Amino acid sequence: MKKVISLSLVLIALMAFSLKKSGYEVGDKARDFSLKNVDGEMVSMDSYEDVKGFMIIFTCNSCPYSVAYEDRIIELHEKYANKGVPVIAINPNDAEKSPKDSFAKMIERAKDKSFPFPYVYDETQEITKTYGATNTPHVYVLDADRTVKYIGAIDNNTKSAEDADKKYVEDAVDAILMGTEVPEKKTKAIGCTIKWAS
Amino acid sequence: MKKIILNIFLLTSIFIGHKSLAQNGELKVIDVPELEKIMVQSEGDNLKVINFWATWCKPCVKELPYFVNAQNQFPDVEFIYMSIDFSENAAKAEKFAQKKKLNPSGLYLIDNVDYNSWIDKVSPDWSGAIPATLIMKDGKKYFYEKEFHEGELEELIKQKLN
Q: ipTM of the predicted structure?
């Protein structure tokens, strides 16, 4: 009996430990959300019909690396939305810590760049925490069942799209569309830290 | 005549000497192999602190004065400042670093935007977000993905030195 108790204590400790390390890994099922878009409407994955996946991209106005990737995010959406894999861009930053990332500024930026995809605000930062995004831009590619298939950078050249010879997100979406294995499932990139509310 | 030549010679050498002094404080643009060399630290070497920063990174800029405080307090510790600014902004990063009085012999810019190829070499624990700091002592690496606040770094260095 004692053994059982100590064993379950160990298990509980292990569970607590694994819970502490928050955020999704490849293979996890991603949760849906309901976040306010720059057009005032609430956006969730459920509101899409007949999709084959999503490119969930944590990005913002203020980070130069996010800005460097804006045009590429637009291109990704234009290339894949009509194939059933749209972009949803989520701004994870606290507006008090990062005033350039306020909802009003998001509206401005989306208008200036004519974002063809929703640009929603995770005001409570709950979704950002659940997904485990650490910096911007940070991409989660999901399949039709919302299983995480890829986490990381958009490609391997922040400075110039032409010079990138590894297009991680495109490769992941192509693999989902073809029903093949995603070649590179997790990458890292330099980015701006998420500005957490204190 | 000989005197004049000697004087000219002396003046020139002072001038050259001066120039080479000024070169100390220049930011060196490097690639991954050089970064790997910088990250070598063995037992008996001085403690090394490598800070990853960029001129555009607000929390990085905020913590730099605390690094300069530590720099002044621990002259035997080697402070390296690794800018992640794009290489076309090297001059800007250099000017900024000099103005902030960052260790003049420890100014670098890593010019390699294939980040996924080298982030894990710094630390597998690094997500890629900056500021990030690597402390090395006796061949061991300690990695911190965080913004340091006043006094924290000094405490940490003291701890590692004991």
A: 0.80
